[in-house]
Structures are given as C-alpha cells and as structure tokens.
C-alpha cells in the first residue's frame, strides 16, 4: 500500500500476522512511513499494510463464538451419547505399534 493511499481511521490489515485495525496516526521515521493501529498501538510500515476487507469478526465476536463452542461441547459431554461411547471401550491405551 502506498503512503498516499492511507488515511486516518482507515481499516487495514497486516498480512504477516493477520492483525487488523484502524489507523490512529501516520508517522515518518528515517524516510519510511509508519501507521499506528488501534488494535495493538504498534507502528507498521505502510508498504506492508493492505486494506481490510471486513469479515465482520472482531475479538468480541470471536470470544462469543468460542463460548458457544464450549457450551456445545459441555452439552455433549454431559449427554448420554458420550457416556454410551465410554462404556464400549476397555480403557486401554494401546499405541498399535
């Protein structure tokens, strides 16, 4: 991404780590242009950033998704299906080697 293409408040992504955020400030350091992202408060070289195409997933929605998965797993573990499956094994741990 070119320095002329960025603007304050623009959503961008750093593809190497997947970090996304809005640009808080733009700074010149030793001839290179850097942008500070609101999600990490770190500076990223502008030529390494790409415009973020919104997947709509934020940290909050990811935590909510994880909580739903945990609740579903707990339901399964408490249900009779898992108990039936455990009755049909001999509790041995053979590696098959």
How would you characterize the overall build of this protein?
The chain is of the alpha+beta class and 97 residues long. It has two domains: 6-51, SH3 type barrels; 57-89. Helix content is 29%, strand content 27%. The chain contains two helices and five strands. A five-stranded antiparallel β-sheet has the order 4-3-2-1-5, with no helix packed on it. A hairpin with a 4-residue loop joins strand 1 (11-14) and strand 2 (19-29). The model has no long low-confidence stretch (mean pLDDT 83).
Short synopsis of the structure:
The protein is of the alpha+beta class. It is built from 2 helices and 5 strands, in the order βββββαα.
Rounded average pLDDT: 83
**DSSP E strands, number:** 5
Count of domains: 2
Largest sheet, spatial ordering of strands = 4-3-2-1-5
Under the CATH scheme, the architecture of the largest domain is Roll
What is the element string, with H for helices and E for strands?
A: EEEEEHH
The stretches of 5 or more residues where confidence is low (pLDDT under 50) are none
Helix content: 25-40%
Characterize the main sheet.
Answer: 5 strands, antiparallel
Which structural class should the secondary elements be placed in?
A: alpha+beta
**Beta fraction of the residues?**
25-35%
CATH class of the largest domain: Mainly Beta
Shape descriptor:
elongated
Q: Over the alpha carbons, how many angstroms does the gyration radius reach?
A: 23 Å
How far apart the termini lie comes to 53 Å
CATH topology of the largest domain: SH3 type barrels
SS element count, helices = 2
């Amino acid at each position: 991404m070119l320095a002329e293409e960025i603007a304050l408040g623009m959503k961008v992504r750093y593809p190497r780590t997947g970090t996304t955020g809005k640009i808080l400030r733009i700074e010149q350091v030793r001839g290179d242009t850097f942008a500070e992202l609101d999600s990490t408060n770190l500076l990223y070289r502008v030529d390494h950033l790409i415009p973020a195409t919104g997947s709509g997933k934020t940290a909050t929605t990811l935590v909510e998704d994880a909580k739903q998965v945990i609740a579903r797993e707990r339901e399964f573990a408490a249900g009779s299906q898992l108990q039936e499956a455990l009755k049909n094994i001999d509790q041995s741990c053979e590696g098959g080697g």
